[in-house]
Amino acid sequence: MIIPPQPRTKLPSGACDCHVHIYGDPTVYPASPRSPAMPMPEATVEAYRALQARLGLERVVVVQPSAYGFDNRCTLDAIRQLGAGARGVVMLRPEAGEAELEACTEQGARGVRFLMLEGGVTRWEELEPVAARVAPFGWHVQLQMDGRLLPEREVGLGRLPCPLVIDHNGKFLGPVDVDHPGFLSLCRLLDTGRVWVKTSACYETSQEGPPRYGDVARLAQALIRRFPERVVWGTNWPHPSKRLEPPDDALLLDLVAEWAGGGDVLERIMVVNPAKLYGFD
Q1: pLDDT tier at 3, thresholds 50, 70, 90
Q2: Residue 1: inside a domain, yes or no?
Q3: Which of 37, 40, 103, 255 is most buried (CB neighbours < 10 A)?
Q4: Residue 211: cis peptide before it, omega within 30 degrees of 0
Q5: Within a domain: residue 232?
Q6: Residue 88 in contact with residue 64, Cβ under 8 Å?
């Protein structure tokens, strides 16, 4: 048996993985017929707990996988199993009512996901109305889109009535320079103090590839230097876009520690910021 390597980084107490997906028995949690993505039944709560122990993580945010569409049962069940150190981001139909929002909140949901890429089931015209609906519950909108298109969406995103979390360093398809209009738009949104960014999944958009992912790393480092109080991080386990050749999670953790320079900045990214954003005690 090959034993996966341990990370070099020793994390502070309360460290949080802010982006994982959990899957389950396909007979209990069938895939959405509208999603081109397939579930990964091996990515269970038990498997994730093993990763948590290996990396030294104590808290986690379970994000609704696109494969399940609006059926949040697997995500909410995972939060329940993972306990007090878990929160979640779900997907909601536009007509979702107050009772559903109350129930999801009680079960640990703190955000609603909008996936604006191929295969997503959410639409731009639904964003502001849903944001207004979740704002009274203290939720945020979690958005994944091609960051190159941020300039044309910046005004609308800036007026959302709840906080906004932007996935994966802006997820520029492909990587851009720090003077690109899309990256400058991302920085202006972060300057509002109501927007957060995840320095996660660098492998999804990098053209340089492992082990350094230099083209995306430059963006992540620029975000951390300028906005350390607005950055969180996640593994994106079990890496559904790279299921045949998943990245090394220990390497990904060591990379973000390197970008942060360790110390107080790393603790802010891994502990302080997630506690504030997701409502951990």
Answers
A1: low
A2: no
A3: 255
A4: yes
A5: yes
A6: yes
Q: How many CB atoms lie within 10 A of CB 273?
A: 20
Structural domain containing residue 90? 16-278
CA 50-267-10 angle, to 5 degrees, is 45
| Number of domains the chain is built from | 1
Confidence at 262, pLDDT banded by 50, 70, 90: confident
CA nearest 105: which of 89, 83, 122, 126? 89
- CA angle, 182 as apex, 231 and 92 as ends, to 5°? 65
CATH number at residue 239: 3.20.20.140
Give the phi and the psi of residue 6 in degrees, each rounded to 5: -85, 150
CA distances from 217 to 112, 115, 199, 223 (A): 27, 23, 9, 10
For the record, the structure tokens of 152 come out as 């044309």
The catalytic residue positions are 236
User: What pLDDT was estimated at residue 37?
Assistant: 82
Q: Which amino acid is at 268?
A: R
For the stretch 136-185, pLDDT in tens is 999 999 999 999 999 999 999 999 999 999 999 999 998 999 999 999 99
Q: Does the residue 228 lie in any domain?
A: yes
Residue 266 lies in a domain: yes
23-34 pLDDT per residue, tens? 999 999 999 888
Q: Which of 154, 145, 155 is nearest to 198 (CA)?
A: 145
**Average pLDDT, whole number, for the chain?**
95
